[in-house]
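Below is a filled-in request sheet from our internal design queue. Each sheet records the structural input a requester submitted and the sequence that came back. We keep these sheets so that new team members can see what a complete request looks like end to end.

REQUESTER: design group, bay 2
PRIORITY: normal
MODE: inverse folding
CHAIN LENGTH: 195
BACKBONE (tokenized):
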């Protein structure tokens, strides 16, 4: 269970339970510069004027939006932990999320190692089998600067028992697939709880 002091400014009162009517809290985690802000911008619709009105902004780093996944609406509260290194000490991010997008940049091996560290820390705070996590290798458009291969990313995800996807926020490639994937995993978890 989460402590109130550890929640962010958004939706504190009604989102402690994850269900059809409650938003899923999805946290963006990763080293600085991997593309978390770019992900949040795409989610918020900043790069897509058609969508820019339907995102409720609660603060700099929280955005709530209802998206359709497999024909069913899902409300996501996105937390962009832009200063994860600072907020880390509070351990809040590790406790507020229902699911995590764990980002690294395929052009930045230290960020890949950082993702592994974050995954290990996450495991200490979250029950391993119940928290959906997707390992996201971002910046896959930068082919010539690649430092982490697809197979390394996939192998890392297998070790950490999470899904894997490569994305390019710059090209808007696979970013929504990552968000939809996390919703599907959250639904599977919800359905298995109800069963
Ligand atoms: P954050 O520190 O994790 O929030 O990272 P940002 O979203 O601020 O991204 C850091 C830099 O990488 C910015 O200059 C972005 O424009 C750039 N960037 C983010 N995603 C991509 C991507 O998929 N491809 C490329 N080429 N650049 C990206």
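RETURNED SEQUENCE:
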């Amino acid at each position: 269970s989460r402590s109130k002091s550890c929640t962010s400014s958004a939706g504190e009162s009604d989102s402690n339970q994850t269900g059809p009517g409650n938003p899923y809290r999805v946290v963006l985690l990763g080293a600085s510069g991997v593309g978390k802000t770019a992900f949040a911008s795409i989610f918020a619709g900043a790069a897509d004027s058609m969508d820019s009105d339907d995102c409720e902004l609660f603060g700099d780093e929280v955005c709530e939006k209802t998206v359709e996944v497999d024909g069913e609406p899902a409300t996501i509260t996105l937390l962009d932990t832009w200063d994860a290194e600072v907020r880390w000490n509070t351990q809040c991010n590790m406790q507020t999320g229902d699911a995590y997008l764990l980002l690294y940049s395929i052009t930045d091996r230290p960020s890949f190692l950082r993702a592994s560290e974050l995954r290990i820390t996450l495991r200490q705070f979250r029950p391993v089998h119940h928290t959906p996590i997707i390992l996201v290798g971002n910046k896959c458009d930068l082919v010539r600067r690649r430092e982490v291969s697809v197979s390394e990313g996939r192998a890392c995800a297998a070790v950490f028992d999470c899904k894997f996807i490569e994305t390019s926020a710059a090209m808007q490639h696979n970013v929504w697939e990552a968000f939809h994937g996390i919703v599907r995993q959250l639904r599977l978890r919800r359905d298995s709880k109800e069963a």
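SHEET NOTES:
- The chain is about 35% helix and 25% strand.
- The first helix runs from residue 36 to 44.
FILED BY: M.R.
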